[in-house]
Structures are given as C-alpha cells and as structure tokens.
Amino acid sequence: MIRFSNVTKVYGKDTVALERLNLEIDAGEFVFLVGASGSGKSTMVRLMLKEMEPSAGAIFVNGTRLSSVPRRRIPRLRRDIGCVFQDFKLLPNKTAAENVAYAMEVTGQRRRVIRTKVPQILDLVGLSGKMDKFPEMLSGGEQQRVSIARAFVSQPPILVADEPTGNLDPNTSVGIMQLLHRINRTGTTVVVATHDREMVDVMRKRVVALEEGRIVRDKVKGAYADEV
Ligand SMILES: Nc1ncnc2c1ncn2[C@@H]1O[C@H](COP(=O)(O)OP(=O)(O)OP(=O)(O)O)[C@@H](O)[C@H]1O
C-alpha cells in the first residue's frame, strides 16, 4: 500500500533528513512513526503526500510510483490519502459542517452526496450536536475531530496523521487515537507520526522508530511496549 524504497532526502546542501530508508506498510495496517524531534517523521509524511520529491530512491502509494505522477494529477492522488495535522488547519470562517463540505466540494463531489455525507461523518466522530459551530467555538479535541471527519469523509484508502495529538491534553488525545483506531477498523490504512510514547504504548500497534533519518526499530503489535 505504501512503500519507501531506498529513500534519501537531503534538504539544502547537507541536511540529511532520511537516509536510504526502506519501509513497507500493507493495506489495512495501523502504523506509528516515532522518533525524536528532527528524526525525519514529517519528512516521511510530506514525501507520501508528494509535497516534495526524494533526493534518491522511490515512494510507492497504491502501487503508483509517486515520481511518475505529473503535477496535474496530484489532486487526484491526494484524494486517496486523507491527512490530519497537529494544528487542525480548519477554515476559521466556516462551521464544522462547512469545513467538511468544502473539502468535498473541491474534490468535485455532488451536492446531494455532500448533503448526506457531512452529517453522517460528523456523527461518526461524535460531533453531531456541533455541526454549526465555528472552529473558535470548539475545543482543541473537537477541532481535531472535525479535521479527521474532513480527511475521512470520502473514505480514502489511506489516512496519514502528523502529530494529531500534539496540541491536545492526554485524555483528549486518547479519544482522538480511539477514533483513528475505529477508522482503521473500517479497512483504512492509518499512519500516525508522533512523539507521544505513552500513547503509542497504550495502542499496541506496529511501531516504526526513526533516529536521524534511519529506521532503528520496527515492532509489530504489542511487542514494543513489553520492551521499554
Ligand atoms: N524545509 C526544510 N529545510 C531544511 N531542513 C529541514 C526542512 N524540514 C526539515 N528539515 C530538517 O530535516 C530533519 C528532519 O526533520 P523532520 O521535520 O522530518 O523531523 P521530525 O521527526 O518530523 O521532527 P518534529 O517531531 O520536530 O516534527 C531535521 O534535521 C530538520 O531540521
């Protein structure tokens, strides 16, 4: 589903963010990318979204080599990867429902589909009573739920989250992780970059640990928590 093949990313002249990295994530997996600040997590996320190109090596998403995707087809590619960020990235002048609807509009979905799906997805993330609230009227956890709803409303095969709980308190974070887990159970491949070790241990999922742009551990479900 997602494959990094010998990927190196160098920023500028000599900042090596990833070094000959190999990783394979199968369809339906839930994978944490962990590592200290600067270890390369966000770089991996940005490469998966084709926000930039690797310096060497190749990235495949759904069997497609990203470097062969022309610029004009990037929007189509992004439809297959929902993304969630630490700072939610909601439009402040739109309500929760409008934020989700807008994401569907820009990908060309029909009005009728949007009208049906928006309430359904907001209900799924536990926000049916807050559809008409603007982001500033919502808590951080609620805002993140809106952004997850927005990322997932078209049921992409992959959902990528970069520090989704970075701005949230521990209890709220657990709720967000449980939501991502539920989304994963519907068959969506979920990749979460985080430095929240406690959360990672609780979740008992595959954990890929990065250090200075290299994978130093790759543990399947549960094994990681037992070791540390
Ligand atoms: N746009 C950029 N230009 C130059 N160097 C960059 C850029 N983005 C990241 N880097 C460098 O690449 C390395 C990896 O950064 P990256 O953001 O991928 O790490 P990270 O694990 O996501 O860190 P954090 O947890 O702090 O977000 C770091 O040394 C960082 O300083």
UniProtKB/TrEMBL annotation:
Membrane topology: Peripheral membrane protein
Highest taxon of source: Bacteria
Predominant localisation class: membrane
Listed PROSITE patterns: ABC_TRANSPORTER_1, ABC_TRANSPORTER_2
Gene3D superfamilies (alphabetical): P-loop containing nucleotide triphosphate hydrolases (3.40.50.300)
GO terms, molecular function: ATP binding; ATP hydrolysis activity; transmembrane transporter activity
Gene Ontology annotations for the cellular component aspect, listed alphabetically: plasma membrane
Keywords for this protein: ATP-binding, Cell cycle, Cell division, Cell membrane, Membrane, Nucleotide-binding
Entry-linked Pfam families: ABC_tran
Ranges for domain ABC transporter: 2-228
GO annotation, biological process: cell division
Compartmental location: Cell membrane
Subunit: Homodimer. Forms a membrane-associated complex with FtsX.
UniProt family annotation: Belongs to the ABC transporter superfamily.
Annotated NCBIfam families: FtsE
Function: Part of the ABC transporter FtsEX involved in cellular division. Has ATPase activity.
Name of this protein: Cell division ATP-binding protein FtsE
Taxonomic lineage of the native organism: Bacteria, Bacillati, Actinomycetota, Rubrobacteria, Rubrobacterales
